[in-house]
Amino acid sequence: MRFDGRKDTRVKMEHLQPVNLMGSDGTWRRSGVLLDVSQTGAKLEVEGTLDVLQAKEFFLVLSSTGLAYRRCELVWIDGTMAGVHFINGNSKKKSASAMAAAAQSR
Hints:
Layout: E1 11-23, E2 29-37, E3 41-46, E4 57-61, E5 69-78, E6 81-86, H1 96-104
Antiparallel strand pairs: 1-2, 1-4, 2-3, 3-6, 4-5, 5-6
């Protein structure tokens, strides 16, 4: 299953999956909805102003406790939509289905 000609297989969310975006320094936070996700990135709909995303690097928080999150960098913005690329440090990559399951289990 591929969406919008992207390289990696994307999992489209059938139900609204609330997420939060948080600055890597913790100084800002935005609510949003996870629209689709792959092993390397995600498409989000973000509430509020997107000017803080110009920081380029931030956290995508998938759980209300903050235990499920990914470090991201901004790829594109179109209105209230944003595309992000996951930054993989030394950690193992999570599969799109595992991320979708984590988002749905909240």
